[in-house]
Amino acid sequence: MSNPTLLEETPANRFIIHVDMDSFYASAEVQRNPALADKPVIVGADPRDGKGRGVVVACNYVARGYGVRSGMPISRAWDLCPGAVYVRPDFDYYDSLSAKVMGVVRRFADKFEQVSIDEAFLDVSDQVKTPAAALSLVERLRHELKEKTGLTCSVGIAENKSAAKIATDINKPDRVTLIPRGRAKEFLAPLPIGRITGVGRKTELLLQSLGIRTIGDLQKGDEVQLGRTLGKTARWLVQVANGVEREEIREQPSRSLSTERTLEEDTTDWDVIERMVGAMAEELANRAIHARLSFKSVGIKIRFRGFETHTRETRLVASTQDKGVIRREALLLLSRFSSGKKKVRLVGVRISGLRMMSTKQASIENWLG
Q1: Is 119 a catalytic residue?
Q2: 327 in a structural domain
Q3: Does residue 173 have a cis bond before it (omega within 30 degrees)?
Q4: Domain finish residue from 206, 223, 252
Q5: pLDDT tens digits, residue range 305-317?
Q6: DSSP code for 11
Q7: Which one of 29, 113, 119, 159 is the catalytic residue?
Q8: Against a cut of 0.85, is the pTM above it?
């Protein structure tokens, strides 16, 4: 494994670790079929079927070298990389592999929070007291993950969640980046503001209109002035920029699960959009089933060209785990927008009102479904 990036070894009293599996869906396919190693792998529809309709659900780093990106129309991916291996998504397999991954990761944590199928935060402050000890723990974690799942991950280590995630994101794949105590502000300063999780293109443009292009610019910003433009978000952004955000690791299940994808090219092709939403609905259903969670609400998010964004949600009569319900309700909500001619940039699906089900309840629900 590659050597970690380490700015300076100084003692710290809070160590937050962010673990992000490298191109998880595509890597899962390579793990299942090692003959795909070193080949461009694209998870999505087969471009030779259905006249090339559908989107790229995921792709590995080899495919990214050809310019392929998730959310891209599959026909565009074919133009860029016709020699790639195209694999239809198998969400049941991805969920089972994710469970194995998270089972390994959880054992290394004092507090554990899974935030997506392939991403988690760990608080290891009780067992780790120095940067060297944190790096040692992470290398043991990565070694065990590789040994038991065949997968690699990228890791960020910092005093807080936002800095740890940024550290992970700027140094992929298969890397470890540690930001020592007291150095987060310095580390973050030169990075573009879009590196902050939650700063989408619309917020980025608003900040740029105020002359804020880097996180360092945000560190010097006037919080009162920012508040006039961004509301309550301004205070959180300033805390993140200065490396002083202190959000705790949440061990309880999230109140919602969501996923969203940005299209490589804006489109009015509703067949593509509906297939993307259907795939995301299936992904969320599988995640809920695996976690023994039922849901009470289904929602969608849609963003048009120009960053006009809408969300819609429907509340169900009763909690369920039914895959068909998510898909049906999500597509019904989406249909409210399909008569327009605006080009779509992003779509997302969300389930909320989550509650844990007993093993017996989950089994009955799945059998009935």
Answers
A1: yes
A2: yes
A3: yes
A4: 252
A5: 777 889 999 998 8
A6: -
A7: 119
A8: no
